[in-house]
Amino acid sequence: MTRPGLGVVGRRVAQFLLDELLVFVPMLLLAIAVVWLFHPHGPGLLTFLEVVLYTMLALDFLGLLFVTVWWPYRHGGQTPAMRWLRLRVVTLDGAHPPLSVFVVRQLLMLVDGFVWGLVGIVVMLVTRRRQRFGDVVARTVVVRVPRSADQAAFPGPDGDLGAVAGVQLALDRADVGLDRRQRNHQ
After folding, report:
1. In angstroms, rounded to a whole number, what is the distance separating the alpha carbons of residues 162 and 170?
2. Nearest residue to 11 (alpha-carbon basis) of 75, 79, 85
3. pLDDT by residue (tens digit) across 18-64?
C-alpha cells in the first residue's frame, strides 16, 4: 500500500474547520438573536448572558455530535464537509464503519484536538495511512473519493444528501488487459 500524500492532511484540517463552522455559525446567530430580542435590563443581564452562553455551548456540543457521529453513520461515512471535499471514513478493510466506531473517533478527538489540534495533525503526518489517533484506535482511515460523472458535488434537487455509493478503487490487472489468464481465454 502506498503512503497517502500530504494533501489529505490539509483536506482533513479544512474538513474539520468547515464542519465546526457549519455547527457554530447557526448557534452563534441564534444566541445573538435571543440576546437581542429577550435581553433584560438591570441586574439580571449578566445571569441571562451566562445562561445563553452555556445553552449555546451545550447546543454546539450536541450539534457537533450530530455532524461528526450520526451524520456520517447515516450517510456513508461522510460529514457534510467530507462530502464537499470528497473524503470518507472507512474501516481498514474498506467497509462502512458501525456507529460505535464513529463514537470512538469523536471521543478521541479530545486527544487529537489537544493544543489546538496540533496533536492530531502531527499524528497524521507521522502515521503511514495519515490517521489521527482516533482513526488508529477505531481502525479506520479517511480516503479520498473520486468524483464520478453521475455524482453531484452538492445535494441534488431530489433532496438527496446521501453519500457516494462506494469507494472507487483503481483498475486491477484484468481491467486493463494485463492478466495473461484472461487474455488466453478470449
Report:
1. 23
2. 85
3. 999 999 999 999 999 999 998 888 888 889 999 999 999 999 999 99
Full DSSP string of 61-98: HHHHHIIIIIHHHHTTT--HHHHHHTEEEEETTSPPPP
Between CA 127 and CA 134 the distance in angstroms is 12
CA 94 to chain centre: 16
Burial of 130 (0-12, 13-18, 19+ CB in 10 A): buried
**Could you give the CA distance from residue 66 to residue 48 in angstroms, rounded to a whole number?**
27
60: number of Cβ within 10 Å: 17
Q: How far is residue 81's CA from residue 143's CA, in Å, rounded to a whole number?
A: 14
Q: Cell for 96?
A: 462502512
Q: How many CB atoms lie within 10 A of CB 23?
A: 20
Neighbours of 145 (CB within 10 A): 22
**Closest C-alpha among 28, 81, 36, 80 to residue 57:** 28
Whole-structure pTM value? 0.74
Per DSSP, the three-state class of 69 is helix
Residue type, position 177, single letter: G
Enumerate the H helices of 68-186 as residue ranges: 71-74, 80-85, 99-107, 109-112, 118-126, 133-138, 180-184
- In this model, does residue 162 exceed pLDDT 80? no
